[in-house]
Design brief:
Layout (H helix, E strand, L loop, with lengths): L1 H8 E2 L2 E2 L2 H8 L25 E2 L6 E2 L4 E4 L5 E3 L3 E3 L5 E3 L3 E10 L6 H5 L10 E10 L13
Parallel strand pairs: 6-10
Antiparallel strand pairs: 1-2, 3-5, 4-9, 5-8, 7-8, 9-10
Length: 147
């Protein structure tokens, strides 16, 4: 009887009271190591597909998206609107025309002080404008066809 009592008191953790011995016997230890944490989880999202959606000379309806952009790469021209995320869209039905125009910033504007002062003397800045030439050109000049 004394030998049985001594076996109950001894456990992996040392000497215990006989009532606590049954608690430790029911605990299971891990049979496998835990998996480590993984890093570099980002980068699996698809691209945003920025760029122009309609080419020069394409026919568009009012509301068609002409270009999507993050920064102001293309500027709205005639009959073109701009959304809150810089998306350019057609305001009227017509043909798309891309033009490059000389850009002269207003004096004392932030662009003039930041951009122009860093450029070499005599450099001409151009900006790309997207225009829509409407089908009904009533009251317009005939020279619009030459644009």
């Amino acid at each position: 009887m004394a030998a049985l009592a001594s076996l109950m008191l001894k456990s992996r953790a040392g000497l215990l009271v006989p009532g606590q011995a049954s608690l430790l016997e029911s605990v299971r230890f891990a049979s496998k190591k835990s998996g480590g944490s993984s890093k570099n989880l980002g980068g699996k999202s698809p691209g945003r597909r920025y760029g122009f959606k309609k080419q020069d000379g394409n026919f568009v309806h009012a509301g068609n998206i002409l270009a999507t952009q993050r920064h102001m790469r293309y500027h709205p021209g005639a009959h073109v609107g701009m959304g809150t995320n810089n998306t350019l869209f057609a305001l009227e039905d017509g043909c798309v025309r891309f033009t490059k125009e000389v850009y002269i910033p207003p004096p004392r504007s932030p662009e003039a002080t930041k951009v122009i002062t860093k450029l070499p003397k005599g450099v001409v800045l151009y900006k790309t404008f997207i225009n829509v030439l409407p089908l009904k050109q009533e009251g317009k000049f005939k020279l619009v066809d030459m644009v």
